[in-house]
Each structure stands twice: as C-alpha cells, then as structure tokens.
UniProtKB/TrEMBL annotation:
Keyword annotations from UniProtKB, A to Z: Autocatalytic cleavage, Hydrolase, Protease
A GO term for molecular function: peptidase activity
Species name: Christiangramia sediminis
InterPro entries: Ntn_hydrolases_N, Peptidase_T2
Protein name: Isoaspartyl peptidase
Residues at the active site: T177 (nucleophile)
One GO BP annotation of this record: proteolysis
Highest taxon of the lineage: Bacteria
Marked site positions, Cleavage: G176, T177
Binding site for substrate: R205, I206, G207, D208, T228, G229, S230, G231
Length: 311
C-alpha cells in the first residue's frame, strides 16, 4: 500500500497575464479546477484507482466551456470540432486514445473504452466514431459544442492561413488542453489528457495529446505525465516519455526530470508549454515555461493548491 496518494490537474498553459482576465472569469476557472480536483481526489480517498480519478477530473473540465476540450472545443477551418484524448495506466502500460473525433461529449471516456474494449491503442476519425456508437456513446448536436467566444475567435482567423492555440489576443494566447495525473493507494499511476486542438486548424492536424509517450504517458516504474503546449514541439521532443526516461535511465527525481524537459529540452527547440507529473510515491511536479498554467494538486498529506500564474 502507498501511504501518499495524490492527484494533479491542468487546464492549459500559455500567456496568461495577470490582470488581463476579469475577476469573474478567473473565479470561474478556479472553481472548475477546484471541482475537478476534489472529484478526482475523492475517488483516491475511497481507495479508488488512479485511472478512475484522472478520467473523472478530465470529464469535469471537458464539460466546462472554459477549457478547450469537450464542450469548449475550438473551431477548425471548416467550422467543425475535432477532438483528441488519451488515457494510460502505469501498471500494465495499457493505453487508449482517440483523435479527430466530433460529436462526443467526453472524448476521454471514449479513450478509456478503447483501452478496455479494443485490441488497439489509437482510433481516429469516422472509425473511432463507429467504435463509439458500437459501445453506446451518443452523438451530441453541433450546438452542444457551440461557444460564442470560440466562434468569435474563429471568425477572426477564418479564410486565412493562420491558426492559433486557443486565445485570440496574442498577448493572451493559451493552449487549452486539459489533463490529470494521479497515484492511488496501491501505488499505481495514471494519466489522462484531452483537447479541442487549434482554432482554424486544417488538414486533419493532430497534436501531442493523443500520442502515447508524447502528450500523455504512465509507467509504474517511473511516473505519469500529462502535457499542454505547442503540440508540434512536444511531438518532436517526445516529451512525456523523455521525462520518464530521465528518471529510469539517469536516476533523476521527478522534479528534476520534469524541469529538465520543460526548461531545457523543450526550450532548446523553441517549444513552449508545461506539464504535470506524479511518481509512484505521490510526489508531484508542475513545471511550465510560459507565463502561466491553469493547475491544481492535492495529496493525502493535506497539501492542496490551485494556481494560474507563476507563484
């Protein structure tokens, strides 16, 4: 048994400048983060699995229009929504992921069904939706995903070659991926990540989120990781697995490995973003190289925090 169990969540990183956000909006973000954190933590407290805890935390953020995942997903160049998600557990290295899916309220739950009920790891597009229907998922109408703010964002970029990571005001651009990592009483770790991708994205672009070892990874030998940031750079740096490798082969601590990949390796190729990670002793790391990252953590020693900016 593991005496220290813990959970960490993120709601995206980026240029989150203090004072740019209205107090109401900040309050809304903090209260949704708090809800996701508490719901995930209560599962761990009842000796539930890390996998259940991370899925639950991500569902709550997918159900909020505040985050670029699920309900709050951004518009593509064609005015549709294409969502990606991945979930993984560290005990048997089982993983499930979906990409380029539309109409699914909680992509993370579909990824979980891929993990549990299919012989595959990653399903995409119409095939993934076929699999969803076979497993009883109902498709939501387009208007479920409609958000006025996201729509205006898209209108500003529409018919141009520009695409964008979430916020319209360049001084306030953020990467709205959501994610959770947890370590349960059994010492098992798990990670879950979900995103709506880039505003005005073209050609079926896929970021780091649904790629195992890139935006999401879990291994009981090392840690569980969920990333958020400019996906192309995370893909090129194989960031989540790189963190795990630094622990496994170099013997680095969770914190040191996390800082190495975010503050050195990612920056070296001009990538920006952040990650949350947990090891099998319940330690948590949440580094980011942007102005801010929506994040929170709670553990069984009584430590709890929710933050947006550099503390």
């Amino acid at each position: 048994m593991n005496s220290n169990y813990s959970i960490a969540i993120h709601g995206g990183a980026g240029t989150l400048i203090r004072g740019k956000m209205t107090p109401e909006k900040e309050k809304a973000y903090r209260s949704t983060l708090k809800l996701a954190l508490e719901e995930g933590f209560s599962i761990l407290k009842k000796k539930g699995s890390a996998l259940d805890a991370v899925e639950k935390a991500v569902i709550i953020m997918e159900d909020s229009p505040l985050f670029n995942a699920g309900k709050g997903s951004v518009f593509t160049a064609n005015g549709t929504h294409e969502m990606d998600a991945a979930i993984m557990e560290g005990k048997n290295l089982k993983a499930g992921a979906v990409s380029l899916i539309t109409g699914i309220k909680n992509p993370i739950s579909l990824a979980r069904i891929v993990l549990e009920k299919s012989p595959h790891v990653l399903l995409a597009g119409s095939g993934a939706l076929e699999f969803a229907k076979l497993n009883g998922f109902k498709l939501e109408n387009e208007d479920y995903f409609y958000d006025e703010f996201r729509y205006r964002q898209w209108q500003e970029l529409k018919d141009s070659d520009h695409f964008q990571l979430d916020h319209s005001d360049k001084k306030d651009s953020k990467f709205g991926t959501v994610g959770a990592v947890a370590c349960d009483v059994e010492g098992n770790v798990a990670a879950a990540t979900s995103t709506g991708g880039m505003t005005n994205k073209n050609w079926g672009r896929i970021g780091d989120t649904p790629l195992i070892g890139v935006g999401n990874y879990a291994n009981n030998e090392t840690c569980a990781v969920s990333c958020t940031g400019s996906g192309e750079y995370f893909i090129r740096g194989v960031i989540a697995y790189d963190l795990s490798c630094l622990m496994e082969y170099k013997g680095l601590s969770l914190q040191n490995a996390a800082e190495e990949v975010i503050h050195k390796r990612l920056l070296k190729i001009n990538g920006d973003g952040g990650l949350i990670a947990v090891d099998t002793k319940g330690n948590i790391a949440m580094p980011f190289n942007t102005e801010g990252m929506y994040r929170g953590m709670q553990d069984s020693t009584g430590k709890k925090m929710i933050a947006i900016y550099e503390e």
